[in-house]
Design goal:
By secondary structure, the protein is α/β, with parallel strands linked by helices. The protein has 4 helices and 9 strands. The strands form 2 sheets. The chain has a 7-stranded mixed beta sheet. Strands 6-7 form a two-stranded antiparallel sheet.
């Protein structure tokens, strides 16, 4: 009697994986986000491009990149793209207000880039920041293909001694627009952040931020993963290697 040979399971053992948390800089994490969710050759609109910090370790020929920002004359809330014309939108706005002091030095701040007459808003402080996220997300929905990916950088903050979990607010609101949250990457800061003056610490100091990945769904089909993925060349420490500088920089944003 012959026995049927047992079929080996598909796949292979590996520890070469993309993880959900990294102690690293934004440009070291961003290529891994792209590798999981944005197929090479896709049209990607980075609507807060600035100096192109995110793209320092992404090969220039990997994507059709459309860089823009507010100072170059393109408002993320009114993009010059047709409906359903973009594969991926990247959004990294100033994500916290800075009401004096140096507690947020080293991070993007709302007043410096948007509130000072660059973007009109009647809202103040955290509400103004979160309103910018919401408005930009609705515009991203318009320009994204069905099946398109929206990558958002954010950080929680304490505002007026009140905990504001920005990433939770974004997930809840964007789901109401129709987006599906597909992933969350935690970026842990290298080193310890400080403050210029401290009387009493009331809340844990934020030393991490997030990349949120949203999908504009195509029917009811769930995210299948990419077969054709961006190859991220890494060094001995497992971090992406630097790539040649972009030929052109837009005005400072980051």
């Amino acid at each position: 009697m012959t026995t049927k040979k047992r079929k080996s399971p598909d796949g292979k053992a590996t520890n070469d994986l993309v993880f959900s948390a990294y102690t690293a800089t934004n440009d070291e994490v961003f290529p891994f986000v792209l590798s999981l969710y944005v197929e090479p050759g896709s049209t990607v609109a980075d609507v807060t491009y600035g100096k192109g910090v995110f793209w320092r370790k992404v090969p220039q020929d990997a994507y059709k990149l459309l860089p823009s920002d507010l100072e170059s004359g393109v408002d993320c809330r009114n993009l010059p793209y047709q409906d359903a014309s973009i594969n991926c939108v990247v959004f990294d706005p100033p994500y916290m207000h800075t009401p004096g002091g140096s507690a947020h030095v080293g991070h993007q701040n709302y007043e410096g880039y948007y509130k000072n007459n660059l973007a009109n808003s009647e809202k103040k402080y955290h509400e103004a920041v979160i309103d910018l996220y919401f408005t930009a997300a609705r515009e991203a929905w318009r320009v994204l293909h069905h099946g398109g990916v929206y990558i958002v950088k954010c950080q929680d903050e304490v505002c007026a001694n009140q905990q504001r979990l920005t990433h939770v607010e974004l997930i809840n609101e964007l789901q109401s627009y129709g987006f599906i949250v597909e992933d969350l990457f935690v970026v842990l800061r290298n080193g310890k952040p400080g403050v210029s003056r401290l009387l009493t610490q009331a809340h844990a100091r934020k030393n991490h931020s997030y990349f949120l990945v949203f999908l504009k769904p195509k029917g009811r089909k769930r995210w299948p993963g990419l077969k054709n993925r961006l190859h991220v060349a890494t060094n001995g420490a497992g971090k992406p290697r630097s790539q040649p500088a972009m030929n052109e920089e837009l005005p400072l944003f980051r």
